[in-house]
Specification:
This protein has about 350 residues and is mostly beta strands. It has helices at about 150-155, 175-190, 215-225, 240-245, and strands at about 5, 20-30, 35-45, 50-60, 60-65, 70, 80-90, 100-110, 110-115, 120, 135-140, 140-145, 195, 205, 210-215, 275-280, 305-310, 325, 335, 340. The chain is about 10% helix and about 30% strand.
């Protein structure tokens, strides 16, 4: 096996929403036998945080971002600070030539959790709209570690509709359409492609866009159950609701800062309790009987949109990972949301 060492560039890049960190000791090698580049790097930052990295490739004065044939530490999943990480990139798979490529690595603090795709049993033998339990196969995706906070909302939207005020409290009193608007505006602010277009009842989603969007009901439940690390809990992260949720018996009749309770198996907080979370789907009480097996996205139309997870003013039953609620698209003081991103490669 013959390798050729190539030139490289190193750069520290920033973002208003995602904090850049120090990338150092970048070195790149070309594997002539298999036609890929291995770019190694070191990453410094807080040991408590997770990071995602991106590779920017340059050749003959042209720069290429959002590389689809990229894999490795920080590209396939999040990474904590450390040394001797590797990214792998195959230019021919991008339709690009070989040459004296130069590379920039951008590292950003990550507030999303990688959810590896897999198969799970959706629903329960509880209420009729939770039946039948059925097998669902989901693609991998990113989901926010926390419910969208008032600080995050205000940075994007310039206002705060919440009844209970506080930067680290979940935003509430947001309608389904408000959440859709936030997703698009945040996507544009971060240089991503918005997912949503249309208006009123005619909102459509570009599922291949790299911007922010609401989770589908299936994605929400899979993540709440702990994804491929699920231990089969009734609530998101425990069979003891008080360990993972702010609900009617312990909330003091108000919301609480995100991330104060224990996370679930994937490291996601507050998927049971605090505020209800909007999902993309139209509500259909019998949808589970006709749901496609792979990546279901809900009914084609309806009167109500789905809410999941329960809230600070709800009891045990409503906070179960299988419980399905619904409402008109208005905002209420226990309605919030979290965002997801499609993995675009």
């Amino acid at each position: 096996m013959r390798k050729t060492v190539i030139l490289f560039l190193i750069m520290l890049c920033g973002s208003l929403a995602l904090q850049a960190q120090n990338v150092s000791n970048v070195r790149a090698e070309y594997n002539s036998e298999y036609g890929y580049y291995e770019i190694k790097y070191d990453l410094s930052g807080s040991a408590d945080d997770d990071y995602v990295v991106d590779l920017v490739a340059s050749l003959a004065g042209k720069t290429y971002r959002n590389l689809k044939a990229l894999s490795g530490h920080g590209a396939d999943d999040t990474v904590k600070p450390g040394r001797n990480f590797s990214l792998f990139w195959h230019p021919q798979m991008e339709g690009l030539p070989y040459g004296n490529w130069k590379f920039t690595i951008e590292a950003k603090k990550n507030y999303l959790i990688f959810v590896k795709g897999g198969t799970f049993r959706m629903g329960s033998n509880g209420y009729s709209n939770e039946k039948p339990t059925h097998e669902v196969i989901l693609s991998s995706f990113w989901i926010s570690k926390y419910q969208v906070t008032q600080k995050e909302w205000q940075e994007v939207m310039g206002s705060n509709p919440s009844h209970f005020k506080g930067d680290n409290l979940p935003v509430e009193q947001v309608s389904w359409h408000d959440a859709i608007e936030y997703c698009n505006k945040r996507s544009i602010k971060e240089g991503l492609t918005p997912c949503y277009s249309g208006n009123g009842k005619n909102i459509t989603c570009n599922w291949d866009a790299d911007g922010y969007r609401l989770p589908t009901e299936a994605e929400w439940e899979y993540a709440a159950r702990g994804g491929n690390k699920s231990k089969g809990y009734t609530y998101s992260g425990s069979n003891r609701l008080s360990a993972v949720a702010w609900y009617v018996d312990n909330s003091g009749h108000k919301t609480h800062p995100v991330g104060q309770k224990s996370p679930n198996e994937l490291g996601i907080y507050d998927m049971s309790g605090n505020v209800w979370e909007w999902c993309w789907d139209w509500y259909d009480s019998s949808y589970y009987s006709i749901s496609p097996k792979r990546d279901p996205r809900g009914a084609a139309s309806g009167q109500y949109r789905l809410l999941r997870g329960g809230s600070w003013r709800n009891s045990y039953d409503y906070c179960r990972v299988a419980y399905r609620s619904h409402a008109p698209t208005y905002g209420y003081y226990n309605f919030g949301f979290r965002v997801v991103k499609t993995i675009v490669r």
